[in-house]
Automatic annotation (TrEMBL):
Pfam families: Glycos_transf_2 (PF00535). InterPro entries: Glyco_trans_2-like, Glycosyltransferase_2, Nucleotide-diphossugar_trans. It comes from Meridianimaribacter flavus. It comes from the Bacteria. This is Glycosyl transferase family 2. One of its GO terms (molecular function) is transferase activity. Keywords: Transferase. Gene3D superfamilies: Spore Coat Polysaccharide Biosynthesis Protein SpsA, Chain A (3.90.550.10).
Amino acid sequence: MTRDLSEETLVVVPAYNAHNTIHKVIEQIFQSGFKEIIISDDCSAIPILPILSSFKNQIILIEQPKNLGYGGNQKFLYEYALKNNYNYIVMIHGDLQYTPTLIPSLVTMLKYAKYDFVFGSRILGGNAIKNGMPIIKYIANRCLTLFQNILTGYKLSEYHSGLRAYNIETLKNIKFHEFSNNFIFDNQMLLAIIKNKYKIGEVSCTTKYDTNSSSISYKESTIYAFGVIKLTLIHFFKNIL
């Protein structure tokens, strides 16, 4: 029996202190036509179980007993996906910064255009600043993206999106459990995808920046930026030697 696209797809939601937005995120995922959802709450200060009571028995909610970190939380969710019978995995943050309405577009590109990995780009379309992206973040994004494009030979619009979709075979072939538990995890994933020469697709994505949006401190941002530079240099020299 053939399954439809929504049955083939698992939407994974890493959440941390997302109590103000998580209900709306799940509601919009359902509205987009996707009902296979797992949320991993990374030991938030305010529990989200009571907030999601209206979705009881419709979603899987895991409340982590200790904080796994941004990357660690994704590892948990991807391990779950690999153990179950799904063909496509969509990762979206629980803070509503990225819109769930793009999920059908991402998965359609995976299935019908045969992409291995698709992400929502805040830069594609040229409206990032207009949509509220802080100017400092925008400049840092553009500089790091230029640097990574030069050293990888790719022409991606950005490398730092939090809306991502994977073909299950892509996840199976990436040793993501060896990656960082912190914010650099996303960049490690993308560089591994590039290393394996997987087909990458992009979708223009408007984002929302407000007090509920996840944000890292300037110190963490600086650590992240240097981490990206280091990873990209390692990737470059490994591929030219």
